[in-house]
Amino acid sequence: MRPHENIGKICGSFAGGLNIVRSRFWGASALAIVAAQAASSGANAQTAPVQTAAAGAVPAGGIEEVLVTASKRSEKLQKVPQSIQVLDTKKMEQLQISEFQDFVKFVPSLSFMTDGPNETTIYLRGVVDGGDANHSGPLPVVGSYLDEMPTTTIGGTLDVHLYDMARIEVLPGPQGTLYGASSEAGTVRFITNQPNPNKFEAGYSLSGDTVDHGGLGGTAEGFVNIPITDKIAVRLVAFDEHDAGYIDNVYGTRTFPTAAEEYGPAAATINNAPFVKNNFNAADTFGGRAAVRVDFNDDWTATLQGVAQDLRDTGTFGYLPSVGDLEVQRFQPA
Fold first, then answer.
1. Which end of the chain is more exposed for a tag (fewer CB within 10 A), N or C?
2. Could you tell me which of 270, 187, 206, 200 has the C-alpha nearest to residue 235?
3. Which range, of 86-95, 129-138, 252-261, 288-297, averages the lowest pLDDT?
């Protein structure tokens, strides 16, 4: 995408009344995932202590302790016996990470190739599958997960909107033992914040940006965590993002020589006047998550989670130099 500049951002959150804490807040495709998870506390990737530590809690000694669940159990990052790179909540807020292209530049072993929204192929340690990112081609070699739900697809990693996330875990190297197919070169895991029955929390974020040679964009996001009882909680997340376009579909004509010979030049010439538009490759992403957590006892927790995300764009993300800089001539809807 073209370089962009943030022109404004407002965010905030509140917990348990008056305690003020900090918070933060690409074509057509849809993501709908529903999963039920039940595990013992020793192997549960979503327990409250994990989220608290991963959010950047600092123990009395002054050293930040980050817990991860890369090996399907909660462990201190320093003790995980494998290569792993983690961006926790605090770091994601500082770096203003809200989508894949935001965090990829902060992970040295991660690279990618993209053709537009939801058409991004990722690589770890330079290992490729030899494919061409075609949907009828081979499976990717890097797996992706939202919590414990696989979101790996042929021809492009689902661009999950990253809001209200506990952390991102990047695991370079073969991960087939725990994460199965499409993890020969590694796995990327997006871990969401889970319902917390201990306190009420809510937050929001509003931001605006402008794109070079393009239009205006912006994002509205929010979450709420509602304890029902001391063992049941609900967490709701909603978001709506508009990415400004920067490719112009300019006026042009096409003449078909064969038709001209039979029907005359006028009948054989068409134009794209109905589709002429500046910044026509804007993209809109909207959706949300809902999760219900039940703590049966000290050892067992069950979480039911649903995710829905709709990504829509109306243009192309490549241009024709023969037409002009960042310009194309399209004669039908993209």
1. C
2. 200
3. 129-138
d(CA 322, CA 231): 64
Q: Kindly give the residue spans of alpha helices, DSSP state H, lying in 42-182.
A: 48-54, 89-95, 100-103, 176-179
- Angle at CA 163, nearest 5°, toward 291 and 87? 110
Is pLDDT above 80 for 54?
no
Across 180-218, b (16+ Cβ under 10 Å) vs e yields: eebbbbbbbbbbbbbbbbeeebebbbebbbbbeebbebb
Q: What is the pLDDT of residue 173?
A: 80
Q: For residue 334, count CB atoms less than 10 angstroms from its CB and return exposed for 0-12, middle for 13-18, buried for 19 or more.
A: middle
- Number of residues assigned to the chain: 334
229-264 pLDDT, tens digit per residue, is 999 999 999 999 999 999 999 999 888 877 666 776
Helix, strand, or coil (residue 27): coil
Alpha-helix runs per DSSP H in the chain: 48-54, 89-95, 100-103, 176-179, 257-263
CATH number belonging to domain 48-193: 2.170.130.10
Domain ranges of the chain: 48-193
Neighbours of 60 (CB within 10 A): 5
State how far the Cα of 254 lies from the Cα of 271, in Å rounded to an integer. Answer: 6
